[in-house]
Amino acid sequence: MGQAEPHLEVSHEGNVTVIRFAERKILEEIPIAEIGEQLTNLVETNQGIRMLLDFENVEHLSSAVLSMLINLNKRVDEQGGKLKLANIKPQIYEVFKITRLNELFDIHATTAEAKKSY
User: Fold this and answer.
1) Could you tell me the residue ranges of all domains in the chain?
2) Rounded Cα distance, 86 and 53, in Å
């Protein structure tokens, strides 16, 4: 029952909305804005959403993605939901550590582990 979004694969697994990124590289401004919009729409239409972003396919992302994620996290909080991240490759996780965003986000090694933690 996944929805077709241009940059995302959305599936509902139990009471968790799992979002997988379709692209390996998330670098361009327009796709990032579109991804942000799609994710925000999901948050707005699902009060108290349990959102899990699966980064398994992602090998590169720009700093604009980080600010989009910060805004998304704020929206999820405002709506009474929870946002978790999983499967972040080591080179990308390094960026989260440098920017201290690993302290802001709830990051898990695998989607299974993240789903159990809700």
Assistant:
1) 3-116
2) 6
Under 8 Å between Cβ of 79 and 49: yes
Torsion of CA 90, 78, 40, 104, to 10 degrees: -10
**Confidence band for 6, pLDDT divided at 50, 70 and 90:** confident
Which amino acid appears at position 84 of this protein? K
In Å, how far are 33, 49, 81, 92 from 15, measured between CA atoms? 27, 8, 12, 28
Tens of pLDDT along 10-52? 999 999 999 999 999 999 999 999 999 999 999 999 999 999 9
Identity of residue 50:
R
Q: pTM here?
A: 0.93
Fold of 3-116: Transcription Regulator spoIIAA (3.30.750)
Alpha-carbon distance of 79 to 44, in angstroms, equals: 7
* Cα–Cα nearest to 60, from 88, 83, 85, 86: 88
Residue 2, beta-bridge partner list: none
